[in-house]
Write a structure and sequence with these properties.
This is Tubulin-specific chaperone A. Keywords: Chaperone, Coiled coil, Cytoplasm, Cytoskeleton, Microtubule. Residues 28-48 are annotated as: Disordered. By secondary structure, the protein is mainly α. Helix content is 88%, strand content 0%. It is built from three helices and no strands. Helix 1 (4-40) packs antiparallel against helix 2, helix 1 (4-40) runs parallel beside helix 3 and helix 2 packs across helix 3 (91-111). It is rod-shaped and about 65 Å long. The mean pLDDT is 92.
Length: 112
């Protein structure tokens, strides 16, 4: 049986993963700019290769993070449904619903 505590944990997990996703997306932009700058400057080939590896690693994290976010969202929805079935209410339920809306927006934006 789902509890309010579980709901809080799952809500926080979704919030954290959204922050991680935003952070990784910003990191990809930063690293891409840095790589482009290094190419313009004709940087040392070894340094350029290392920078490209950093960029590739950052790019790999974005789809992984999205996948974890979708799994966490599904888990949160299931927990919220259980709590609503047992007629439990509170600020945590409202917060979970708000987070679900926010995360669905992020997921839809990512799919576009």
């Amino acid at each position: 049986m789902a509890t309010i505590r579980n709901l809080k944990i799952k809500t926080s997990t979704c919030k954290r993963i959204v922050k991680e996703l935003n952070s990784y997306e910003k990191e990809v932009e930063t690293e891409a700019a840095k790589t482009a700058e290094m190419k313009e400057r004709d940087a040392d080939p070894y340094d350029l290769k290392q920078q490209e590896n950093v960029l590739a690693e950052s790019r790999m994290m974005v789809p992984d993070c999205r996948k974890r976010l979708e799994a966490a969202l599904t888990d949160l929805k299931a927990t919220l449904a259980e709590i609503k079935e047992s007629n439990q209410e509170g600020a945590e339920v409202e917060e979970a619903e708000a987070v679900i809306t926010q995360v669905e927006t992020v997921v839809q934006t990512a799919e576009s």
